[in-house]
Hints:
There is one protein chain. By secondary structure, the protein is an alpha/beta fold. It is built from eleven helices and 13 strands. The chain starts with a strand and ends with a helix.
Amino acid sequence: MKRILVTGGLGFIGSHTVVELQNTGFNVVIIDDLSNSKIEVLDNITEITGKRPDFHQIDLRIKKDVQAFFDNHHIDGIIHFAAFKAVGESVQKPLEYYENNIGSLVYLLQEMRNRNIDHFIFSSSCTVYGQADELPITENAPTKPATSPYGNTKQIGEEIIRGTCKANGLNAIALRYFNPIGAHESVKIGELPLGVPQNLIPYITQTAAGIREQLSIFGDDYDTPDGTAIRDYIHVVDLANAHIAALQRLIDKKNLNNFEYFNVGTGKGSSVLEIVKTFESATNQKLNYKIVDRREGDITAAYADTTIANKELNWKTEKTLEEALQSAWLWQKKQQTS
Length: 338
Ligand code: WQD
């Protein structure tokens, strides 16, 4: 049974990927520094799958600790989620983002090279495209100068991986996420935003739960049918399964290059107002919202062309937007009772 290291494995996407890895028969070890996750998630994963992942609280910025981990653990592949990921925060704290997101990546890749660990899946982002000139966005779309240090760490990260694979014959896949939302059907794991949510869906669910008074919709003067910005909202379990498909592609040596990247979305764009209306109808909850000015740095529209990902990964999304929003709402209500 292959042993897969999942860094950031107690986080939102990481925990859902651990569950799918275990359900697929992989042995999972998690590294997480708990800076943006809770140790209770480990128990919740165990309750879902019946298998407790091995867990190590390690700060991947500390090179000697990373080396010590690999001295003591045989690893067959790595799925690397651990990173700071708040776009706005990254503008305020660029050096923390570069140190954490780039430093930890370099230390992991050094261990891969030194120990000939050959399968690496990287958590990347559609933010590498900025505002694409053509929609839907294909993998051939040019990357644009990053509009935030966060986005820049993803662009730099991909280039570091590309160069490392070329120089050392390693194999890696970057998955460029669109907008992950929702929660596991068990309602035992989901998104746990710390403080005031930056992202749309947790802000919506907290507004519906009465934690936030009103949702502010950032701008209705975009060049879109209803004036609000468009994104590609993908159920986090579908996204988790894309990681399994990518890992299996490397294990089966089906990759065409030693560094590949795929757009992971639903292929469908939804505006903010469409999300609000779909949430209301899917959950029977009325949302209190107002239109305010645009948020600095937001783009008009981004949604994926999933043709290549569907074909090459033999993967496609299976869950609907309604299911994702319903699961997010059930998860939110669970937070009120626990
Ligand atoms: C979505 C839409 C907002 C909050 C995220 C991640 C980024 C990357 C891509 C992974 C926008 C609007 C939001 C609110 C609103 N993912 N909005 N009111 O900006 O697309 O970026 O997905 O790497 O890391 O941050 O997602 O959820 O913040 O915003 O009107 O209170 O909702 O303007 O149009 P975004 P988001």
